[in-house]
Amino acid sequence: MTLFELFCTFFYIGLFTIGGGVVALTLMQQTIVAQGLISSEQFYNMIAVSESTPGPLGTNMATYIGYNLYGIPGGIVATMGEVLPSIIIIIIVAHFLTKFNQNIYVKGAFSVLRPLTTGLIMVPVVQIFVHSLLNLPSDYSVLLSLAGWKGLFDWISLAFYAVCTFCLLKIKLHPILVIVMGAVFGIIFL
User: Fold this and answer.
1) CA–CA distance from 135 to each of 2, 47, 127, 186 (Å)?
2) What is the mean pLDDT of residues 50-59?
3) What contacts 31, CB < 8 A, 6 or more positions away?
4) How far is 64 from 48, CA to CA, in rounded Å?
């Protein structure tokens, strides 16, 4: 893949990402991982790093993937490809929105996009959950035995997930501290 192809790939991802960076994860996985440019393991590690760094998730992922493939020029090209469609669309929408704000078709389009976006956001959430907390065997018949169910969960990660959820919801610990806890946990235990 050349730098121009990298730009076009992320332009495509940015163009069809409706609903934010989490939605972009699905498209990134389908295009970048499916083409074999990075492995699934690298992809999930990049999500973890991109989630913990400031800025939009989709942009962080584009920068990280581009940098991983081509260094600094790749990071710049991938980031520009990711954000350029949004900039173009925002300029166009801002120009026409005041004219069509009450249009029945515009309202209808937004009523369809909301549940669609929710579904697109749930796909990477479920994938990350399954990848992080479950030990799925390659032979699913093992799950039929009781021993197979005991090894299904990564119990240490699941316990840490419960502790983090408790800290966020009950203790009201600041999310940045939970992110730091997650980084330390990942370094020590994974």
Assistant:
1) 36, 19, 13, 16
2) 86
3) 9, 12, 13
4) 11
